[in-house]
Amino acid sequence: MTRPAPEEAPLPSNRSFGRLFVIVFGLVALWSWWRGGAWLPVWLGLSAATLVVTLVAPDRLAPLNRLWMRFAELLHRVVSPVMLGVIYFIVLTPFALVMRVRGRDPLSRRFEPGMKSYWVARDPPGPDPKTLPNQF
Prior knowledge:
Layout: H1 14-34, H2 40-56, H3 62-101
Helix pairs in contact: 1-2
């Protein structure tokens, strides 16, 4: 079975893309200045050039905007599963192992051959069925 092609997400506007990189280049310039300033003119120049292009001809940023979004999608495809795996194995697995070692079974999944039924009687018995007429 083939998977349907994913819908392409709409790109952010070229102006917002340009503003983002003006800020990023400005912050890198600030960091460069704080660390000694050897690359300060380069980063300030990139920030200024990006600002001019953003204000004068934002359509020129469209190819870079598309490239940036492709890079973002690649990062999403790599980072998301890795982070979910890290959370699963660092947080949930040790928690489950501790519960298992302590003999805790919150879902009552353990097989007990002497039981007649696994039905859990509620006390109080729950809502009156007449109060739930349109569930679906």
